[in-house]
Each structure stands twice: as structure tokens, then as C-alpha cells.
Amino acid sequence: MKASAVRKIVRPENPMYTVQVGAFSKAANALRAQKIAKGRFKDKPIFNRFDPDDKMYRVSVGKFDTGEDASAFRHAIMKQYSDEYVQCWIIYIAR
């Protein structure tokens, strides 16, 4: 069986950051997570992006200028919603 190639993560120049709260193979699951996030984090932008390389929908919350701000938000939601966001992480986004 042939192993799939690992895609290199490219950091955009002068990036912003977002907290990815889920990755889903089914659009319905991503839409459900997006709806929940919109209800919880009304003051933050919510993103639902499809990655054609691995056919995954990725839902993320917020646009942060620094990794530290994104990390603080990540820790806060992991504490408040420990059952749901235990595996959230920070990713780069372009400005």
C-alpha cells in the first residue's frame, strides 16, 4: 500500500492566526460545528474551509494578530468547553 505524501505547511508572510475547532470529512458535520461556534462566539469570525487535497472541512474561530492571542483564546475555550474543544489547535491564515 502506497503511503500518501505529507503536505508541507507553509507559513504565510506576516500571518494571522485562527483556532481550528474541528476537521470533518462530511459537510453536514462541519456545518453543525460552524453553527454551534457561531452561537458561542458571536464576536469572532467563524470559518469553514474545504481542503481539496485531503477532502476535509475545517472549522475555525477568530482572527488573531499574534500567536499569543490565539493561544489565550484556545486555552479559554478548552477550559470552558472541555468536552468539545479538547483537540483544537492554532493554524496560520493569510491577512
CATH fold name: Alpha-Beta Plaits
Side-by-side strand order of the widest sheet: 2-3-1-4
Helix content: 25-40%
Estimate the strand proportion. 25-35%
Q: What is the C-alpha radius of gyration, as a whole number of Å?
A: 14 Å
Structural class label: alpha+beta
CA(first)-CA(last) distance: 39 Å
Overall spatial form = globular
Mean pLDDT: 92
From the coordinates shown, what is the CATH architecture? 2-Layer Sandwich
Q: What is the string of SSEs from the N terminus onward? A: EHEEHE
Number of strands: 4
**Given this structure, which CATH class is correct?**
Alpha Beta
Number of domains: 1
Say which CATH homologous superfamily is assigned. Sporulation related repeat
List the total number of helices: 2
Strand count, sense and barrel status of the largest sheet are: 4 strands, antiparallel
Can you give a write-up of this model?
- The structure is a single chain.
- The protein is α+β, with helices and mostly antiparallel strands and 95 residues long.
- It has helices spanning 27-40, 67-80, and strands at residues 16-24, 46-51, 56-64, 89-93.
- It has a single domain (16-93), classed as Sporulation related repeat (Alpha-Beta Plaits), CATH 3.30.70.
- It is built from 2 helices and 4 strands, in the order βαββαβ.
- It has a 4-stranded antiparallel β-sheet.
- The protein is globular.
